[in-house]
Every structure is written in structure tokens, then in C-alpha cells.
Amino acid sequence: MGAIHVDGLRKSYGSVTAVDGMEFAVDRGELYGFLGPNGAGKTTTIRVLTGQIQPDSGDISVLETDPVAEPIETRRNVGILPEQGSPPSFLTPREYLEFVGEVRDLEPERVAEQTAMWADRLGFESKLDTLHTDLSRGQQQKVMIAQAFVHEPDVVFIDEPLANLDPLVQEQVKQFLVSYAAGDNAVFVSTHNIDVAEEICTRVGIVADGQLVTERSLTDDDGDESLLEVFLDRVEGEDARDTPTLEHLDA
């Protein structure tokens, strides 16, 4: 069953075209990787799909809801982990997750259960009642991951999920994302990290200059090329195979 549908999406900022005719679809049960260099249009696409900004044109839906016509309803029903997002500085993790749960119409008992579960899973139990101003960037990222899943949404949009996390927590988060998508949910991960995309995604869309240039299934035999080779061929061109580093992916 389709969870995300995008057809002819366009979005410009003045004279700069950020998304130029983007087209793709994501089904439940998929962990879809949105892979591309910085400036490819990944974050803009997520912001349109989650009702945060208006597109110039295009046909889009998330869980059969139009984010353009019903942005509040869309944001209520999905999970969102923005790149470099942070919790409100004047709240504790417990207060913030209670607020998110209330917005998502969860019963207080369920919010308490989810808060305890996520604090245990990601290891921030001792920080539940500490103001976010006193938390490290990694601890804040753990809270942001928890808020994206606290209401157990059917679709989750994640922009660079592993930022600021130590290696052990990164592995825990990757395993969770795989299992969550397998539970008849759709997980949409935007990243410039080829290794992460290849490790956890069921399918990857490679984007450049605001367009989807190719898609690749990672669950079927889809040719002999690695995802890195596909990326270099479709985005950077054949000469990029000889490039010693990928600075354009590391910002």
C-alpha cells in the first residue's frame, strides 16, 4: 500500500530551483533512502511532504492526505526528525515528550510508557528531568529521535538520523529503523552517507540538482555495481570514479 506519493514536485526560492520535477513513491514496509549531496533538494522535499512549506506545483500525498491542503493533519500523523533539530531549551526531555504526545492525541499513560521505553533504549533515563540547555548535542539528538516515534506513526521522515550519536547508539538506531519499517510502516531517510543507505535501506533514490536521477533496490539483485559506483556514475559522472575523496558528501 502506498504511503508517500510524489509526482512533478517543484519548489523554488527566488531564482534558485531547489526541487525540479521530483517523482517517486514509497510503500509501507519500505525503508527508503533519499541519497544525494548537500544542496540536492532532499531537505526541501521533506519539508514539503511534512506540510512545513508550500510547493510551487506537483501532486503529493502522505498517508492519502495532501500536505498542501492539510499541513496540520499531516504533521500530526507522521513522525519528523529534522536535520540539526533540537528540543526547546526551556523544557526537559520528559516535558517535551509529554508535549509531543499531547499534540498527537496520546493518552498520558501511553506517553509515560513511551517516554520510559525510549529513555531506556537510548540511555537518557538520568537526563529525563534535566533542561535541554544542559544536555550534550548527542543527548539532544536522542530526545529528538524519541519524539519522532513516540506516537508510533505509520510514516516517519528522518533527515540524517545518526548525527552526533556515538557508534554504539548509531547501531541501535539503525537496527530499530530496519525493524520499524518491517512492521508495515514507511521510513523515509534522507542522507548523504552512502554506507548507511546501503546498510539499512530496502530501496534508494539518488537525487541531484532537485531531481531523482535513479532508483536502486537493495533487496534484489540489481546489477553488479555498488551503490557508490551508481552514485558516482549518475551524479558525478565517470571521471568521479578516480576522485580520492568525497568532500561533497561530508558537509
UniProtKB/TrEMBL annotation:
GO terms for molecular function: ATP binding; ATP hydrolysis activity. Pfam families: ABC_tran. It comes from the Archaea. PROSITE patterns: ABC_TRANSPORTER_2. Keywords: ATP-binding, Nucleotide-binding, Transport. The keyword Transport applies. Residues 4-234 form the ABC transporter domain. SUPFAM superfamilies: P-loop containing nucleoside triphosphate hydrolases. The keyword RNA-binding does not apply. PANTHER family: ABC TRANSPORTER ATP-BINDING PROTEIN (PTHR42711), ABC TRANSPORTER ATP-BINDING PROTEIN NATA (PTHR42711:SF5). Belongs to the ABC transporter superfamily. This is ABC transporter-related protein. It comes from Natrinema versiforme JCM 10478. The lineage of its organism: Archaea, Methanobacteriati, Methanobacteriota, Stenosarchaea group, Halobacteria.
